[in-house]
Amino acid sequence: MKPQGIERYAPLVGEERVVEIVRAARPLLGLRVLHISSTFHGGGVAGMLRTLIPLMCDVGLDADWSLLYGTPELFGITKSLHNALQGEGIQLSEEDFELYLNINAFFARHTPLFHDVVVVHDPQPLPMIRYVKKGKPWVWRCHIDLSGPDEGVWERLKPFALRYDAGVISSEAFRKPDLPLPTYVIPPAIDPFSDLNRELSQEAIDRKLAEYGLSSDKPLILQVSRFDKWKDPLGVLEVFRRVRKEVDAQLVLLGNMAADDPEGPQIFKEVSARAEGLPDVHLITATDELLVNALQRAASVVLQLSLREGFGLTVSEALWKGTPVVATNVGGIPLQILDGKTGFLVSPRDYDKAAERVVQILRDPDLGKELGEAGRNHVRENFLITRLLRDWLNLLVELCDRPWLSDLR
Ligand code: UDP
Question: What is the pLDDT of residue 319?
Answer without folding.
Answer: 98
